[in-house]
Design a protein that fits this description.
The complex is a heterodimer of chains A (306) and B (243).
Chain A (H helix, E strand, L loop, with lengths): L2 E12 L2 E12 L3 E5 L6 H8 L7 E6 L2 E2 L4 H7 E4 L11 H11 L8 H8 L15 H13 L5 E5 L7 H14 L5 E6 L2 H4 L4 E6 L2 E6 L1 H6 L5 E5 L3 H10 L3 E7 L2 E6 L6 H9 L6 E5 L3 H10 L5
Parallel strand pairs in A: 3-8, 3-9, 6-7, 7-8
Antiparallel strand pairs in A: 1-2, 1-4, 4-5, 9-10, 11-13, 11-14, 12-13
Helix pairs in contact in A: 3-5, 4-5
Chain B lengths: L4 E12 L2 E12 L3 E6 L5 H8 L7 E6 L2 E2 L4 H7 E5 L10 H11 L4 H14 L15 H12 L6 E5 L7 H16 L3 E5 L3 H4 L4 E6 L2 E6 L1 H7 L5 H8 L4
Parallel strand pairs in B: 3-8, 3-9, 6-7, 7-8
Antiparallel strand pairs in B: 1-2, 1-4, 4-5, 9-10
Helix pairs in contact in B: 3-4, 5-6
The chains are: A alpha/beta (306), B alpha/beta (243).
């Protein structure tokens, strides 16, 4: 089985900024491969290189068996790309946009309609509406339909769920999962750590460098210490009090609890005493399972912690 | 202890032609609260936020923010609030100090006060050497933390944050929220919208909008109990989906 993407030693600089440094990875056919990292990590730059829109300074990249630099013409016919910001024509209707994309790729909407029907059916009732007047969630569905209309072998989605609410995000990922049945390989980037768990493989990226590439469960499992969760009604006071406790290594807010690691991977009753002195009477602390975000924080801190 | 309401909304309606963006909203926000304003895209959050911050006028209903009526005195509201949004916050081609001076001046602060608070702020954020750097040089996370500090620089009664942590790395996101906690501790009310459901858990109370109406308003714990959910995300998915 051929590798859909084979990247080796990719580097890219913009002026003095090292956007990408020595990036190597590969993607198998039919995988959902996620790049997870914050703004400025290099995700968009990397995706532009993969979709032949940007040249790397160093390194080699093969997409669908072709060199991304020399074979760009052929590649562009076989990649579907959904960039970060809404890229469609705001002053064309939904239907006009879709027809336009189909025509540009030398096909018709009818030919590959079965591929997008699940997605497009949500917006078909609005097909005469101008794309610029659609809500964020609908724009997303239209952009995805247009990226798929020519039945590409590789779908590249750059932060498709940024700025979108939790309901639409969840629906979007359900749609992506269905695409796997058509054996389309999906490369996706996101700043949302929880979305990493919905990928087959994940690359954590920060400041142009890869922190980890693996199965998301394995990345989660790589967390090197015991993780504990603390809860108390006085959230802010709890975080501060935990940080002041000498045995604490790290304490981060995580929704309704605080995730803690201890220098000796354990704590005793002195912690409860310490919290009581800070006015926190009813704290509960228990061991808990590390998530992918805990591991990301750990990897991010590796450079700075003693 | 009875808490003062810094925002009072009674029967707020906002229409654009025949489309009702805000359909009879009623809620209050209290002093020193961290209030999370959630909702699906297109639910009417931005419309309501613009009215609360004096940028838009209600079609009908009463809206009082920081003691001023949104229909009669929107300019007075603007003077007494702080505002930060994700898309634009500080001027890229000005330095940190210049941005702070600009905002301080706009809010009518004296030069002495601006100078003093600027140095305090730079020290607090450990930015002392960066004071004369351009905003465009800073990474996003730092920009956002700075933008927030500038939004509360004039110590307003209430600060509005519109998706302040979008795309920011997970460490900075948490540091940002700790800045929010500390601000609320000082008695400044924080009104925040976000798409990160874990951030909703940091709020004292949250409201969820759907199709122009408020469909839930309570503490995160109470809502989770009411909807038998383990997280605010679950509550959101249960009730915020448009029909």
């Amino acid at each position: 089985m051929q590798k859909i993407i084979l990247a080796s030693g990719i580097s890219k600089k913009f002026g003095v900024t090292q956007a990408l440094k020595d990036i190597s990875f590969d993607v198998n056919e039919g995988e959902i491969f996620g790049f997870i990292g914050p703004d400025g990590a290099g995700k968009t730059t990397l995706f532009r290189i993969i979709t032949t829109l940007l040249l790397p300074d160093e390194g080699e990249i093969k997409v669908l068996g072709l060199d991304a630099v020399a074979g760009f013409k052929e590649l562009r016919k076989n990649i579907g790309y959904m960039p970060g910001r809404f890229s469609l024509y705001q002053d064309l209707t939904v239907e006009e946009n879709l027809n336009f994309y189909a025509t540009v790729f030398g096909t018709t909407v009818k030919e590959n309609y079965d591929l997008i029907s699940d997605i497009y059916s949500h917006i078909e009732p609005f097909k005469s509406r101008l794309a610029g007047k659609l809500s964020g969630g609908m724009k997303q569905k239209l952009a995805l339909s247009c990226a798929l209309i020519h039945k590409p072998k590789l779908l590249v989605l750059d932060e498709p769920t940024t700025g979108v609410d939790a309901v639409s995000r969840s629906e979007f990922w359900d749609m992506l999962k269905k695409l796997k049945q058509h054996n389309i390989t999906i490369l996706v980037s996101t700043p949302y750590m929880d979305e990493a768990m919905r990928c087959n493989k994940v690359a954590l990226i920060q400041n142009g460098q890869l922190l980890s590439i693996d199965d998301p469960d394995k990345i989660k499992g790589g967390f090197s210490r015991k993780l504990f969760s603390a809860r108390a009604p006085e959230k802010y006071r709890l975080i501060n009090a935990l940080r002041e406790y000498p045995g604490t290594l790290s304490a981060y807010p995580f929704g309704d609890s605080v995730h803690i690691t201890f220098r000796d991977d354990e704590f005793d009753d002195s912690l409860y005493e310490h919290l009581k002195k800070a006015g926190i009477e009813n704290a509960t602390i228990s061991e808990s399972e590390a998530g992918i975000e805990d591991r990301f924080l750990e990897l991010m801190n590796k450079g700075t912690m003693a | 202890m009875i808490k003062n309401a810094v925002i009072t909304v009674k029967n707020l309606v906002k229409k654009f032609g025949s489309f009702t963006a805000n359909d009879n909203l009623n809620f209050e926000v209290f002093e020193g609260e961290i209030f999370g304003f959630l909702g699906a895209n297109g639910a009417g959050k931005t419309t309501a936020l613009r009215i609360l911050s004096g940028l838009s006028s209600p079609t009908s209903g009463e809206v009082i923010v920081a003691g001023y009526n949104a229909k009669k005195d929107p300019e007075k509201i603007k003077k007494n609030i702080g505002y930060m949004c994700q898309k634009f916050s500080l001027y890229d081609d000005l330095t940190i100090r210049e941005n702070i001076m600009l905002y301080g001046g706009i809010y009518g602060m004296s030069k002495t006060l601006i100078k003093q608070r600027t140095e305090d702020l730079l020290e607090k954020l450990s930015f002392q050497e960066y004071g004369d750097r351009m905003i465009s040089d800073l990474p996003l996370g730092l920009k956002q933390k700075l933008a927030f500090s500038v939004a509360v620089f004039h110590e307003p009664k209430i600060v509005f944050l519109d998706e302040p942590t979008g795309g920011v790395d997970p460490i900075t996101r948490r540091q940002f929220w700790e800045m929010i906690y500390e601000t609320a501790d000082r008695g400044i009310t924080v009104f925040v919208t976000t798409h990160y459901m874990d951030e909703a858990e940091y709020c004292d109370r949250i409201s969820i909008m759907s199709e122009g109406r408020i469909v839930a308003l309570d503490t995160p714990e109470a809502l989770k109990k009411q909807y038998e959910a383990k997280s605010v995300e679950e509550v959101f998915i249960k009730i915020a989906r448009p029909k």
